[in-house]
Amino acid sequence: MKRLSLSVVAAVLVFSLSACGGGKTTQPPANQPPANQPSAENPSTGTPSTTAPSGSYDAATAEALFKNTCAGCHGQTLEGAVGPNLQKVGAQLNKDQILEVLNKGKGAMPPGLVKGADAENIAAWLADKK
Question: Biased-composition ranges for Low complexity (predicted)?
Fold first, then answer.
């Protein structure tokens, strides 16, 4: 019985870790549009996305996108889980460096989970976390 429980725990752990990335193909969450189509709406309110010009960002949209796309690995409050802690990522990486990670992936993080204006918005939002 103990051996069966250990096997079940191991299987759940392997499944949850593999769900966070590492594969070449990814599918967006059920409530997200495909990553190759820019989001036209704020997922939390259904209102149009209003990403501001470079240097600024729409924090509400960035946070909603992060929670829908990234929080599974990085935690709801950026505390880190399977992925690294991002609470002070802006002290280590600038917006362009964060955008490069979003576009190209890094470690187990697959590339292109968010693209276009959404990636720019999240990158600016994260760069402000110092």
Answer: 37-56
Burial class (CB in 10 A: 0-12, 13-18, 19+), 4: exposed
Which pLDDT tens digits describe the chain residue by residue (130 residues)? 555 454 444 444 444 444 454 443 344 444 444 444 434 444 433 333 443 444 589 999 999 999 999 999 999 999 999 999 999 999 999 999 999 999 999 999 999 999 999 999 999 999 999 9
Separation in Å, CA 116 to CA 37, 77, 101: 9, 23, 13
CA–CA separation, 8 and 2 (whole Å) = 10
Domain membership of residue 17 (yes or no) is no
Within a domain: residue 126? yes
Residues spanned by the domain of 96: 54-130
Burial 98-111 (b: 16+ CB within 10 A, else e): bbbbbeebeeebbb
Report if residue 42 sits inside a domain: no
